[in-house]
Write a structure and sequence with these properties.
Blueprint (H helix, E strand, L loop, with lengths): L1 H14 L35 E6 L3 E7 L4 E7 L13 E10 L5 E11 L8 E12 L2 E11 L7 E13 L2 E11 L4 E14 L2 E11 L2 H6 L6 E13 L2
């Protein structure tokens, strides 16, 4: 668990780095998407009406819209029909509600993720999550809990989230996203870190890397010799007009 401990310390350090850039509001435009990290949500709100289309690893497509009341809704898919394998494509829906407290640096959220898999899959999936965000769009730290299932024959899994974001420059932000799911005999961590950079008015780039540790039985079923699996992250975000 030492690598995971170091990673969590890294998240905490990044979240509380003094964001001197925030003092230069004229030179440094506001963060357009403080409402999420790579995938996980935060309690902060994007501008009402903000929309984006995200493509991850040229495989996953996700569209999202933020409403005035702090709600955001989205949907996504994997276009397997492009390979000619099947027309029964995996799709998912997301929904998040955010609440502002009296303290502008403390915000909360709750939401869900619902996955519909092809008919030959063993089960569909769902996740409910909730948490609290400390900080502002320039630097913030989110802690949350989740419960979900991707296998109807197994009990739901539970986990915790620890995510952070801090401005690196005029158009770039450092992002860390971490999950920890305790099991009956082991703990499954998922850790990602990287950055988001604004390329143009309507295009943003995300680059990241991370790792996860598979359960012994999962590693054996996949016929791999190591339980540590790298997780590359590459995304393009296209801002859409309101």
């Amino acid at each position: 668990m030492l690598p995971l401990t170091r990673h969590c310390i890294f998240v905490l350090v990044c979240a509380f780095v003094p964001a001197s850039h925030a003092q230069q509001g004229i030179l440094y435009p506001p963060n357009p998407y403080p409402d999420h990290y790579f995938f996980a949500p935060s309690g902060l709100r994007a501008n009402a009406g903000a929309r984006y289309l995200k493509n991850t690893s040229l495989v996953f497509f996700h569209s999202n819209k933020t409403k005035e009341n702090g709600k955001s809704v989205g949907w996504g898919l994997i276009p397997t029909f492009l390979t000619g394998e099947t027309t029964d494509i995996p799709i998912w829906l997301t929904a998040v509600k955010r609440w502002q407290t009296r303290n502008p640096n403390i915000n909360t959220w709750a939401g869900g993720f619902f996955l519909k898999l092809p008919e030959d899959a063993e089960s569909d999936g769902w996740i409910f999550h909730s948490g609290i965000t400390f900080g502002n769009p320039e630097k913030n730290l989110s802690c949350g809990v989740l419960v979900g299932s991707f296998d109807k024959n197994s009990p739901p899994f539970k986990g915790i989230m620890l995510n952070g974001q801090v401005r690196l420059g005029r158009k770039s932000w450092l992002i860390c996203e971490n999950y920890l799911s305790p099991g009956a005999q082991t703990v499954t961590p998922v850790c990602l870190w990287g950055f988001r950079k604004k390329i143009s008015r309507s295009l943003m780039l995300e680059l990241g890397a991370g790792w996860t540790k598979l359960r012994q039985e999962d590693a054996e079923s996949l016929s791999i010799t190591t339980r540590y699996v790298p997780l590359p992250w590459f995304s393009l975000m296209f801002s859409r007009k309101k």
